[in-house]
Amino acid sequence: MHELSIAASIVEIVEEEARVAGASRVENITIEIGTLSGVMIEALQFAMEEMMLTTSFSGAKINYDIVTAVASCEECCSEFVAEDLFKVCPVCNSSKTYYIRGKELKIKSIEVERDN
Amino acid sequence: MCGTCGCGEEMKITYRKSGENQNSESGHSHHHYHGDHLHSHDHDHEHPHNHSHDAATGNSIIIPLERNILAKNNLLAERNRGYFEGLNIKAINLVSSPGSGKTSMLERTIREKGAELKCYVIEGDQQTMNDANRIEAAGAPAIQINTGTGCHLDATMVYHAVKQLDMAKDSTLFIENVGNLVCPSMFDLGETKRVVIISVTEGDDKPAKYPDMFQTSHLCLINKTDLLPYVDFSIEKVKETALKVNHQLEFIEISAKTGEGMESWYQWLNDLRKM
After folding, report:
1. Could you identify which of A2, A3, A85, B132 might form a hypothetical disulfide with A44, taking C-beta atoms 3.0 to 4.6 angstroms apart as the criterion?
2. A38 close contact with B: CB closer than 8 A
3. What DSSP designation does A114 have?
4. What domain count does chain B have?
5. In this predicted complex, what is the ipTM?
6. Closest Cβ opposite residue B66 in set A97, A106, A113
7. Residue B49: what pLDDT?
8. In this model, does residue B256 exceed pLDDT 90?
9. Is the dihedral of CA A86, A92, A93, A96 positive or negative?
10. Would you say domain A3-114 falls under CATH 3.30.2320.80?
């Protein structure tokens, strides 16, 4: 259940950035999350709901931007969508592949309201 | 509930040397780092200057952040790594399921090579001093981190434990992570190398079921090989599956009980010392 740690980090970052921006309310939080980031989205959603209860932005809406994993082959340089961590190249069947995308785990943006 | 690991709010993470009963550190608990200089603004992100396009709601603005959620742990891990490099300490993050024989393997390593490698150990478990006591009895200084209900070690915990260990230059630090093949994979501790252990009494489909850990490790120790005649476990299958996830993974087959294969492990550690 490492998603709780992840949710705690998200809450901490959002609180900090909202304070810096002088926000009175956080309306939206957009999280970018790769399909192979190691985070289970359902577990993160659950953790976020719990973690946000004690914050000033418990009503904020969270958008999850899912990034499909893409790998590249060291042998033939093909790029292909990686469904899982067993990223065998569909062109030359090599296992010598590495990720280009899919490990993302970041807060893309927050939408806030200010009083002024 | 504790924000970070889901433990009860009153639950403390404790750091104790073998023989200490009470918390030796005021040791609070949460993994939040309060030093002033580590407040990580990833300065590669754009600051919110492009909010001219006033949203229809008036005062509502979108602030682009592009902040890595694990950045704080990663920064502290790099700080640990710098400390290790400065003292030429080789730090090994040992990860596995519970019961793979991590502690037995370490006991034997310390008994046979402890003086040569100058071993120190950080033990991560949810509860008990058992492992730290075993390591101390084998002859290496050890700190036990009890994470309460936390499912993994993080860089902050290692930072606090290392401060108590007072390690010598040119030494070797083994960080025995919480027995869990899932959560520790995401948390960099600042280690030099990550070593995953699997024992032949587990299923040989472990790398298929828990690929993340094999993907992030440098070496895979296959332990309890003395039991191979009694179990249906294909070493070839493990290697084949794990290599699909991580084609750079190395393998060493050992039996911490009989000592078979341990020389190869010591050789790997010696080679690491020379790096």
Report:
1. A3
2. yes
3. E
4. 1
5. 0.87
6. A106
7. 44
8. yes
9. negative
10. yes
